[in-house]
UniProtKB/TrEMBL annotation, chain A:
Residues covered by the Septin-type G domain: 34-306
Species of provenance: Oncorhynchus tshawytscha
Record's keyword annotation contains Nucleotide-binding: yes
GO molecular function terms attached to this record: GTP binding
Gene of this entry: LOC112263496
Subcellular localization(s) per the UniProt record: Cytoplasm
Keyword Glycoprotein: no
Leader sequence segment: none
Keywords of the record: Cytoplasm, GTP-binding, Nucleotide-binding
Protein name per UniProt: Neuronal-specific septin-3
Main localization category: cytoplasm
Cited Pfam families: Septin
SUPFAM superfamilies given in the database record: P-loop containing nucleoside triphosphate hydrolases (SSF52540)
Family label: Belongs to the TRAFAC class TrmE-Era-EngA-EngB-Septin-like GTPase superfamily. Septin GTPase family.
GO CC annotation terms, alphabetical: cytoplasm
From TrEMBL, chain B:
Record protein name field: Septin
Gene that encodes the chain: LOC112248596
Domain of life: Eukaryota
Molecular-function annotations in GO: GTP binding
Main location: cytoplasm
Lineage, broadest ranks: Eukaryota, Metazoa, Chordata, Craniata, Vertebrata
Amino acid sequence: HYYCRQSESIGSTLLGYIGIDTIIEQMRKKTMKAGFDFNIMIVGHSGLGKSTLVNTLFKSQVSRWSSGWGGEHKIPKTVEIKAVSHVIEEGGVKMKLTVIDTPGFGDQINNENCWDPISKYINEQYEKFLKEEVNIARKKRIPDTRVHCCLYFISPTGHSLRQLDIEFMKHLSRVVNIIPVIAKSDTMTPDEKNEFKHRVRKELETHGIEYYPQNEFDDDMEDKNENDKIREAMPFAVVGSDKEFQVNGKRVLGRKTAWGVVEVENPNHCEFALLRDFLIRSHLQDLKEVTHNIHYETYRARRLNDNGGLHPISANNTQESNL
Amino acid sequence: MDAIMLQEKLVERLLCPRVRTSRQKEKQYVGFATLPNQVHRKSVKKGFDFTLMVAGESGMGKSTLVNSLFLTDLYKDRKLLNAEERINQTVEIIKHTVDIEEKGVKLKLTIVDTPGFGDAVNNNECWKPITDYIDQQFEQYFRDESGLNRKNIQDNRVHCCLYFIPPFGHGLRPVDVEFMKALHEKVNVVPLIAKADCLTPSEIKKLKDRVRDEIERFGIKVYQFPECDSDEDEEFKQLDKELKECCPFAVIGSNTVVEARGQRVRGRLYPWGIVEVENQSHCDFVKLRNILIRSHMHDLKDVTCDMHYENYRAQCIQDMTSKLTQDNRMESPIPMLPQSTPDVETDRLIKMKDEELARMQEMLNKMQQQIHDGKDQ
């Protein structure tokens, strides 16, 4: 036997510049080369401006429909899951954005369990990832098709949430990150909007619906403070548009009516800018991390438990596993 | 000329016929040309009644629109239910009645509200309470009409149903189609596009075209404005044409008064502008109000009486007589309703039938006994 002495790590004053901090730059370069995947699901009944909003968020035609609704918007008889991917680039960073649309949700007369196909799809992506993970010869970067974020569109009735809204969010808030938004909010005056938001938040609380960013996953005080502010301001009341108009000498994205132009990026008109900053500029990576570290792990643990502690894939014998 | 003024002219024409005042023609003048005047005076004394039903999901602005149309506040003490409270709610029928008087003319206005419609997760046949209600009013009227004291019949029949289509769709949804088809042969259905201030003018046009197209495609019989008489002037005909092409009306309502262009008007104040409810370039509210109140209220009532009610009545009588004439018995001269309190005639008929049945049963028993005996041997 040998004897090993572990010296305590002590902070030492550096005598010169070494260059440890460049590791951040190295990481950045690597991730930039690798690119990002981001999968966003949009849920809400037909006509709430989901596709337009997603196009506005990412400033590209990334939804299934091109701008304007001249196309055939036929309501399917059952809920369908349609995923469309685009690679968009900005500042040298490439993102493979997948928009998952759910036409047919909430459009039928009887909408019982219309969230089942959605729930099934989300779990299937977790399963796919799990299978790759337990492979002996795994890919270096497992293709990530898991849903990182689910934008749920609330109809701006001005009264309160609808039954279907509550049922959906109750069933899915523990499986995926749900971000509720109030669609087509230019139908409400500022007072109506505030009252509606307040009522909706209370209802979400009453039903124990934890929307993203979830309280329990705040890492530290700094996160908690930042997220508290965001939680208080949610759900964001948004308006989407892919048309530009001239307002006060500037070209802005908006909607032109007989009584004025609704400016999408004007914080006095709607909260689109808040949603965009939150979703894309500050919490994009966190959404992926929560999906991977929490939702996916929950799924994996459950599969393990269901299998009596054995690895889930070994029971299937569909491919060689590392057990 | 203003649309309102033109329509008022029409009303005047109906009520005050041209009277020949020339002396030469006085001999031929009998005087019954004043009949419309007399009718007018009598009905003003009696007063009018009108029953309007509003249907559509909650949050479509139905109550606000009704308040804007009739300049009342029918829903002052309303408490909005939250989603949890609405979970087990079925579609209800709530009536609000208000007496309005204007320039000596009295109107008893009844608004039939349908809270809960289309709000559940499973909305199968959510229109049934509504169709049942309409049928009940017809049945009530039918009974009253056939009764002895007909002087003070209360007409609770629904004269018009405003159906609110959400502006957030791409046309009619399955529930819209099913609802209108369940009701189009029982009541005058007037489809509206609700909360139209969230749509741009081109979006409104697209949606209207789409809805009109789907209404035709699905065979939905919405209320048709009657053709105007051929002797009306061109301007009036043009306005009438515009009105018909405007359907379904895109409406906005408001309970608040705002300051716009130096005047106080009913409207909605947004950070980007002010929507005026009565501004025809903003929405079709004025057109709807004119149709409903100023020009077609009477026609709506007529169509309800002459078409929808008569259809119901004919169907009712047919059902009833087919039950009674099954074995070629005499046709009942008095319309009888299955649940009505039994009167002498009904009792007699029932007794006769019972006796007949008893006799037939006895014969059957005898025959069975014979067969049975025959078998034994």
